[in-house]
Specification:
- This protein is an alpha/beta fold.
- It contains eleven helices and twelve strands.
- Helix 5 links the parallel strand 3 and strand 4.
- Pfam families: HTH_1, LysR_substrate.
- InterPro entries: LysR-type_TF_proteobact-type (IPR058163), LysR_HTH_N (IPR000847), LysR_subst-bd (IPR005119), WH-like_DNA-bd_sf (IPR036388), WH_DNA-bd_sf (IPR036390).
- Residues 1-59 form the HTH lysR-type domain.
C-alpha cells in the first residue's frame, strides 16, 4: 500500500474523529481506510488506535506516530508550496483558525469573494474559542480577538471588535428599557460563559458600579444567546456583527449604547517565513483590504 497515503489517512482519522469521516474526505470506503491503518500497525509492530463501539483513542505508540506523521506531511506540503513560489501562482490549501463569532459573522461572509478571485486555492476554516497552537494545528493564519501575548508571529491589526446590548421588543415592553447600567439589577442578563474574567457584564459592573443580574441562563455559544434574546429571555451583550442585522430589522432593540464595553483589538497572525507563499500573501492582502484597521 501507498505508505504516504496511509499516513495521511491515519492523521485524518485522528483529526476528524472517525474512520467514516476520513473515508468520506478521501472518497474511500471505510474498510479500505481500516486496511491502511492495519498496514501501518503491521509495519510498526503495534496498535495505533484502540477502538470501542463509541469512540477511538490513540495508544502511546499512536500518539507519537501521529505527531511524526503531522510533521512529515507538513514538510511535504512545504516542499510543494516551495514549487508554487517558483511558479508565482497562488495555489494550494490554506488552514485558517478564528473564534466562533468572529469567524462566522465577519470572516465567513468574505470567503466566497476570496475563493472566486483565487480558484486554485482551497481553504479549511476552523472555528473555536479556545486558543490553539498554530504549529500543532498546522495553521497558515489565525485571527485573534483581544490583546496579544508576545509571539514570533506577524500581527496585522484589523478593525476592532465592537459590542452591543440588545433585547427583544416584547422583553422591553414587559420589563422596561434600562437607561443606565445600574438598572441592570432589575433585568435578566444572559450570561456568556466564554467571557474572560472581568469582561462582559463584569466590566460594566466594575466601570459603572452596577450589579447586573446574571446567571439564570448561561451559555457558551453566541448564536444560542442571540436566539435566547430573540425569544425574549433577557438582555444580551454580544459582538455587534452578531446582532446588527436583527437590530436593523427590528427583531432586537439596542439599549445602553453609551455604556458599552470598549472594543477589543483584532489581529491576523501568521509566521513571517510563510508570507512568501503566494497563497498566504494574497489571503493576507485580501483580509487587510476588507477588514484592515481604519
Amino acid at each position: 500500500m501507498d505508505r504516504l497515503l496511509s499516513m495521511e489517512l491515519f492523521v485524518a482519522v485522528v483529526d476528524k474523529g472517525s474512520f467514516t469521516a476520513a473515508a468520506e474526505a478521501y472518497r474511500l470506503s471505510q474498510p479500505m481506510v481500516g486496511k491502511h491503518i492495519a498496514a501501518l500497525e503491521a509495519r510498526l509492530g503495534g496498535k495505533l488506535l484502540v477502538r470501542t463501539t463509541r469512540r477511538q483513542q490513540l495508544t502511546e505508540l499512536g500518539a507519537l506516530y501521529f505527531q511524526r506523521c503531522k510533521a512529515i506531511l507538513a514538510d511535504i506540503q512545504s516542499a510543494e508550496d516551495g514549487l508554487a513560489i517558483l511558479q508565482q501562482q497562488p495555489r494550494g490549501h490554506l488552514r485558517v483558525n478564528a473564534s466562533v463569532v468572529f469567524g462566522a459573522c465577519r470572516l465567513a461572509p468574505l470567503l466566497g469573494e476570496f475563493m472566486a478571485r483565487y480558484p486554485d486555492i482551497s481553504l479549511q476554516l476552523s472555528l473555536e474559542d479556545e486558543l490553539v497552537d498554530p504549529v500543532i494545528g498546522g495553521y497558515d493564519a489565525l485571527f485573534r480577538v483581544g490583546h496579544l501575548q508576545d509571539s514570533s508571529m506577524v500581527a496585522r491589526p484589523l478593525q476592532p471588535y465592537c459590542f452591543m446590548i440588545a433585547a427583544s421588543p416584547d422583553y422591553l415592553a414587559r420589563r422596561g428599557v434600562p437607561q443606565h447600567p445600574v438598572d441592570l439589577a432589575d433585568h435578566d442578563c444572559l450570561g456568556f460563559s466564554n467571557w474572560r474574567k472581568g469582561d462582559g457584564w463584569e466590566q460594566l459592573a466594575h466601570t459603572y458600579g452596577a450589579s447586573p443580574r446574571v446567571g439564570r441562563i448561561d451559555c457558551n455559544h453566541g448564536q444560542a444567546l442571540r436566539e435566547l434574546a430573540l425569544a425574549s429571555s433577557g438582555l444580551v451583550l454580544l459582538a455587534e456583527a452578531l446582532l446588527r442585522q436583527d437590530i436593523a430589522t427590528g427583531r432586537l432593540v439596542e439599549v445602553l449604547p453609551g455604556f458599552l464595553p470598549p472594543p477589543k483589538p483584532v489581529h491576523l497572525l501568521y509566521f513571517p517565513d510563510r508570507h512568501q507563499l503566494p497563497k498566504l500573501r494574497v489571503f493576507v492582502d485580501f483580509i487587510v483590504e476588507r477588514l484592515g484597521a481604519l
